[in-house]
Amino acid sequence: MRGHIRERSPGHWAIVIDVRDPQTGKRKRRWHSFAGTKREAQKECARLIAEIDSGGYVEPSKQTFGQYFEQWLRDWAPIKVGPRSIESYGHWGQHLVDTLGAMPIQRMRGSDLNRAYREAAGKGLSDRTVRHIHGLARRIFGHAMRQGEIKRDPSKEIDPPKVTAKEAAVLRAEDVPVVLDVLRSTALYTIAVVALGTGMRRGELCALRWDAVGLKGGTLDVRQSLEQTRRGGLRLKEPKTKHGRRRISLPPSVITCLQEHRLRQLEQRMVLGLGKPAANALVFTTPDGQALAPDRVTNAFTRAMADTGLSQVGLHTLRHTHASMLLKAGEDIVTVSRRLGHASPTITLSVYAHLVSTNDGAAAAIEAVLRGETKW
Question: pTM score, two decimals?
């Protein structure tokens, strides 16, 4: 490999490096502009040759961040995540494109990302959403680094945006009967009871099938989740982690509620002339047996809560309430994590740490040892 410099004008140089195309074997020339002294240009030429030899060379490109993001979202993101995540990436990424879309991706620095985050926050986005935008930036630039399209990852030059810790909203014990009484005569009642009794996510509830419910054994298997996207509609998907597939024990009141729901569902199908459903039919459906759209369930629940004076209560609040009931009853964090389907108890603890009792007798146990009252 050879290289040389040419002076274009005083203090401005063209660095020309001859390389061979690994596929065709033909010689190619790579041109680089440089401003400085002749000696500095010669050093830069030597550095570029060494960089090419070591495999760390990145071909200069004028591709903008906006162009790169569009390509990444179309060609690469679908390999890793589902349609719902793609929609979220498109929404979060647009905030980056609004600020940085015209900037060459190879010239971007951490300070540019910080500017985009500030502008996003200035639009009223929550600190958690800004953190999601940063997470997306890490994915985009990490991919660009692995593909050899940039030399440095600007997302690693800055600290992640801070997120103000907020305690998960839960129902008070006295609010639970109020919520259930409001829903009792609606199609949401059994959904709410199962959510409170199992801690299942919205999509998991909508994907629940009768062959996964063991009414005699008092258990329920979570196998799938129903996802809703703007473009693709509804689709069933597997849990994200192995812990998402789980068996949950059912309280007697939940079993009774499901039995009654099953009976009503059969009676309704008979009235409509639909006959007996398949063994693997969905538990929660429209009157004609179709799947319930998760967004439809959430919106209906929100409207129902607005009539109770509990407008701050959402469907996901029932999942948080399930966890809080267990932790306040003294259940260990690992058991709670398994029921919720978290990938790790660490996640459970980060969300519900404020609910874990500190009256654990640890101080008394240590005191007994210090006094010589306990031996091991």
Answer: 0.73
